[in-house]
Write a structure and sequence with these properties.
Elements: H1 3-30, H2 32-36, H3 45-52, H4 59-76, H5 98-103, H6 105-108, H7 114-126, E1 134-137, E2 144-147, E3 150-157, E4 160-168, E5 178-182, E6 185-186, H8 187-198, H9 205-212, E7 230-231, E8 239-245, E9 252-257, E10 259-262, H10 272-279, E11 306-310, E12 315-319, E13 323-327, H11 341-353, E14 358-362, H12 371-381, E15 391-393, H13 397-406, E16 422-423, H14 433-437, E17 440-444, E18 447-451, E19 455-456, H15 461-472, E20 484-488, H16 495-505, E21 511-514, E22 530-534, E23 551-560, E24 579-581, H17 591-600
Parallel strand pairs: 13-14, 14-20, 20-21, 21-24
Antiparallel strand pairs: 1-23, 2-7, 2-10, 3-4, 4-5, 5-6, 5-8, 8-9, 11-12, 12-13, 15-23, 16-19, 17-18, 22-23
Helix pairs in contact: 8-9, 12-15, 12-16
The structure holds 2-acetamido-2-deoxy-beta-D-glucopyranose (5 copies).
One 2-acetamido-2-deoxy-beta-D-glucopyranose binds at residues 58, 60-61, 280.
GO molecular function: serine-type peptidase activity
Domain Tail specific protease: 322-501
Signal peptide: 1-25
């Protein structure tokens, strides 16, 4: 739309507003969608629910959604077959034949609202428990946020695991009281059930449990932590009932209503009519959660730790003379520049200069991001012939055609351009489409499908240079598997999972995972994948039809294999941490205590 059109629309709407002002206020009083479109105020739960349920089910749109999902799962999702296999001990999910579920989806239930249909579909896809794979209907997920304003955590005390209040922005007196019941269930069980049924960030339930609760540093990153208390999915009811036990007070019960607000950005809808067309528009914009600071909780601190290196990609700290910590919170940056890789080298070099004897690499809550940075960090710290896990993707006949097409020099290229990937075997770019396509038929979950040749990413020249320079640098990293430990809260995801799994598998580094369930093994990483992509890839694939409504699918397109056990797919290997730690009231607010505990695990 050009500026002139905008201007005309503006003039029109001013004129309209003038004429319909009286009816507007009338419609606000009986249009729940208009009420919840208002920013800066709290909404009624019933208004959100009524608005969401107002969009009628449209069977032709639904069929198209199912068709596109079927295409993506049939030919692109890399775990479609493997998801049908029996579940390895340590994981919590059930084998799922996603294609047959999608096939019979509309036979099982008749829908009257668009919301119910999309919600069922969303929770079906969640059953894969693949953190990279998420189906979202934008109009029911991305504009309205539900906040309990009470944030929970779990501590182990006298050999017993309990749920406590980490922070409460409404009533500070509740902080650190024990939560004994949630909605008339024992609190621990209620959180566990929530993690079991509502979350899909890991196949390991212990990691999902951590994600449901407040995390060490930021209390409300909706995508990684605090998911019980801060939601974008419509909750089942307007409130949650808690029973609390506080020191010197009698146990008491209270009902906490959701504080429901509208995100502070331009909305594509203003009332019920525009809300409904928004649901059926192809516009999709995902919700980007904002972090929250604890308000009434004792402040988070780095305690005795001294910061000695401060950069965007990595921080370094020392604890006394002997312990060094490198903290890497993300591989995802607003603007990724290769030169950020110097900062990983800088953080470790700083600790080397200070001659620390032990190193804790803290990767807690790292959501992943750039695969190049993860691979680079792997090779920087644990040099070896192969410092990237081999990966592959699905190559059914339609995708083979695309590979041949995109690999032609005169084409526009794209994700499937063969020469943009390195063969795992030769370490060099594939010479042609056929090399990339390869000849690997694999049978998983009773189905045989074609997978590409094994390949790895092409590291940018700058990263390769830094790696080379480090080998010749006067400042070498003197630590090994007896003096380095990887610390996470289980949520070291995607690219972070790739690097931590590499440190553990090739470097033989010990790992320690904090949180989870008492005396149960806990993964130190989650959903390594390969690579996540979204349905936008369909623009490169003329054989498939895109979605026609406001929905999206993120999914794993590439899978990574173990280097040591080349037939094992990393996502489906249960890899618990060598050591366990638990949160308590102190180490969850003073991270230096946790780092000290982790370092103590090294002899
Ligand atoms: C359902 O959606 C299609 C495609 O957007 C549209 O053409 C049709 O009119 C809709 N049907 C109903 C009953 O609204
Ligand atoms: C509800 O949440 C909003 C946004 O976080 C906040 O500004 C507001 O104060 C909260 N309302 C109440 C009643 O606490
Ligand atoms: C091959 O590429 C051309 C343009 O480069 C495109 O028009 C065509 O649809 C592509 N075919 C396939 C199967 O990708
Ligand atoms: C494919 O990738 C290579 C390496 O990145 C690049 O040089 C080439 O131009 C790409 N081919 C096309 C057709 O875009
Ligand atoms: C593909 O592999 C199969 C079995 O490994 C072999 O029989 C066949 O000849 C191979 N095809 C090509 C084109 O290399």
């Amino acid at each position: 739309m050009n500026a002139m059109n905008n201007l005309i629309i503006y003039i029109l709407s001013v004129a309209l507003a003038f004429f319909i002002a009286p009816t507007l206020s009338l419609s606000l009083s009986n249009d729940p969608c208009a009420r919840i479109a208002k920013k800066g105020v709290s909404h009624l739960y019933d208004d959100v629910k009524t608005c969401y349920l107002s969009t009628p089910f449209n069977v032709s749109v639904a069929k198209r959604t199912l068709q596109t999902l079927n295409d993506l799962f049939k030919d692109l999702y890399v775990f479609t077959d493997q998801s049908k296999e029996p579940v390895k001990e340590g994981f919590d999910f059930t084998p799922l034949d996603i294609l047959s579920v999608l096939d019979t989806f509309l036979d099982k239930k008749s829908y009257s609202t668009d919301f119910e249909f999309n919600k069922d579909l969303r929770f079906t896809v969640k059953k894969l428990r693949d953190g990279h794979t998420d189906f979202q209907a934008g109009c029911y997920l991305n504009d309205i946020v539900f906040d309990q304003q009470i944030y929970l955590y779990s501590v182990v005390k006298d050999g017993k695991q309990i749920i406590k209040v980490f922070d409460d922005t409404i009533d500070g007196k509740n902080v650190d009281c024990e939560v004994t019941q949630i909605n008339s269930k024992p609190a621990l069980q209620a959180i566990k059930e929530f993690a079991q049924t509502q979350l899909s960030s890991s196949r390991d339930l212990g990691v999902r449990f951590n994600d449901a609760l407040a995390s060490v540093k930021e209390i409300a990153i909706a995508t990684t932590s605090n998911q019980f208390s801060v939601r974008t999915d419509l909750p089942e009811s307007d409130s949650i009932t808690y029973t609390l036990e506080c020191p010197n007070r009698r146990p008491f019960q209270f009902v906490r209503k959701w504080n429901i607000t509208t995100v502070d950005r331009f909305l594509e809808w203003q009332d019920m009519k525009t809300f409904q067309s928004y649901c059926f528009s192809e516009f999709f914009l995902s919700y980007i959660p904002t972090q929250k600071k604890a308000v009434n909780s004792p402040p988070f601190t780095y305690g005795k730790a001294k910061q000695v290196y401060n950069a965007l990609a990595a921080n370094a700290y020392t604890l006394g003379e002997d312990i060094g910590i490198v903290e890497i919170g993300t591989f995802s940056f607003r603007r990724v520049h290769d030169s950020l890789a110097f900062e990983y080298q800088g953080a470790f070099q700083e600790l080397a200069k200070r001659k620390v004897k032990k190193v804790v690499i803290d990767l807690s809550n790292n959501p992943g991001g750039s695969i190049n940075f993860a691979v680079f960090l792997s090779g920087l710290i644990v040099p070896s012939k192969h410092f990237a896990f081999p990966t592959d993707l699905r190559v059914p006949p339609t995708i083979q055609q695309v590979i041949r097409n995109e690999s032609r020099p005169e084409s526009d290229g794209g994700f499937y351009n063969a020469s943009s990937w390195n063969s795992f075997e030769t370490g060099k770019p594939f010479e042609n489409a056929e090399q990339f396509i390869g000849n690997r038929s694999l049978t998983r979950g009773g189905t045989t499908d074609e997978y590409s040749a094994l390949f790895i990413d092409q590291l940018p020249d700058l990263l390769l240079e830094i790696l080379k320079d480090q080998r010749k640098s006067p400042i070498q990293f003197p630590w090994d598997k007896d003096s380095t430990i990887i610390l996470t809260n289980g949520h070291c995801a995607s690219a972070c999972a790739l690097v931590s799994r590499y440190f553990a598998e090739i470097g033989q580094y010990p790992t320690v995972a904090v949180g989870g369930f008492l005396e149960q093994p806990l993964s130190f990483s989650t959903f390594p994948g390969g690579e996540v992509i979204d349905n936008g890839i369909l623009t490169e694939l003329p054989a498939y039809k895109p979605f026609i409504s406001n929905v999206a699918l993120d999914f794993t397109i590439r899978e990574a294999y173990s280097l040591k056990n080349p037939n094992e797919v990393l996502d489906f290997q249960f890899r618990p941490a060598t050591h366990r730690l638990y949160y308590d009231e102190k180490n969850s607010r003073d991270i230096s205590l946790l780092w000290e505990q982790a370092a103590d695990l090294l002899k």
